[in-house]
Amino acid sequence: MRDPDIAGLRAANQMRYSYALRSYPTRQTFVFAMRTASALALTPAPDWALFLDVDGTILHFRDSPDGVEAGENLLNILEVILTRLEGAVALVSGRGINTLDSMFAPHRLPTAGLHGLERRSADGSLHTVEEPAALDKLRPQLLILATASTKVILEDKGHALAIHYRLEPELGEQIKHRVEELVQPFLSELHVMHGKMVTEIKSRLADKGSAIRDFMTEAPFKGRLPVFIGDDTTDEDGFAFVNSQNGYSVRVGDSTDTAARYTLPGVDDVIDWLESWPRLLDATQSAAKRTGSDR
Ligand SMILES: [Mg+2]
């Protein structure tokens, strides 16, 4: 037999829910669409500027950060899109620019490395922020932390430090906690980011959002619509900036805790989508020509 109180509560809740839908239909639909829309619903246009995170977005993760490289198919796709967007394609990664250059050779793309701490514009000019002095003080302690297990890797990127625990994920919580503790006295200078199987310590002076913002003030990005695809919490600053410009933010994977307005399930889906861009761009341009000739 149904409990009358529970039945009454359900009915009241249903009424409230339908009232909310009636009262705020636009807002409800808007929020729902923003949280769940697949990037496949977007139609690439020739005035887009494409910003790409690398690991977990266009390249699969490997056990060690050194075991990752761009294959011929990805290089070809990037080359075609570069031409179609008149060079407005940039990498925005936590890796250093030198590493990214070797991974994507022979391309030498506009690139933001170390989460925006270093940035190479399309004209080749290099922009870096000052290395925080506090990192030198932390290096020895982080090295001790990393040597606690042979499976934990300390990656010294100069302007940033990363502790990878992909080979021993059960140490993750312990590492996060200890790093937060060590960085606590330097929070005015440093920022801790917990990514996928990695904890990074970097300067507060730049992030992926500021890197994309700076690219957007320069040729060939200026005046275009920014589109950023990333997969991790470290990409959230980029999503927030792109949203502020009414661009398109795309998070890869199933996280719901994100500012990104569009999603794709995984790396292979990103590659498939990018591979379809030339065809979609052709369709957009033919439609624009038809509309123009109808006038
Ligand atoms: Mg990533």
Query: What's the mean pLDDT score?
Result: 86
Q: What does the overall shape look like?
A: globular
Helix content: 40-55%
Q: How many domains?
A: 2
Q: How would you write the strand order of the largest sheet?
A: 5-4-3-2-1-10-11-12
CATH topology group of the largest domain: Rossmann fold
**Proper CATH architecture of the largest domain:** 3-Layer(aba) Sandwich
List low-confidence stretches.
1-34
Backbone CA Rg: 22 Å
The number of helices is 9
Strand tally is 12
Task: Look at the helices and sheets and give the structural class.
Answer: alpha/beta
Query: CATH first level of the largest domain: which class?
Result: Alpha Beta
Describe the structure.
Helix 3 links the parallel strand 1 (48-52) and strand 2. The protein has two domains: 47-126 and 208-294, Rossmann fold (3-Layer(aba) Sandwich), CATH 3.40.50; 134-203, Alpha-Beta Plaits. The longest helix has 28 residues, at 267-294. It has helices spanning 4-23, 25-36, 72-84, 97-103, 134-146, 172-183, 208-215, 236-244, 267-294, and strands spanning 48-52, 89-92, 111-113, 118-120, 126-128, 153-156, 160-164, 190-195, 198-203, 225-230, 248-252, 262-264. Residues 1-34 have low confidence and may be disordered. The N and C termini lie far apart (68 Å). Helices cover 41% and strands 18% of the residues. Bound molecules: magnesium ion. The site of magnesium ion has 7 residues, from loops.
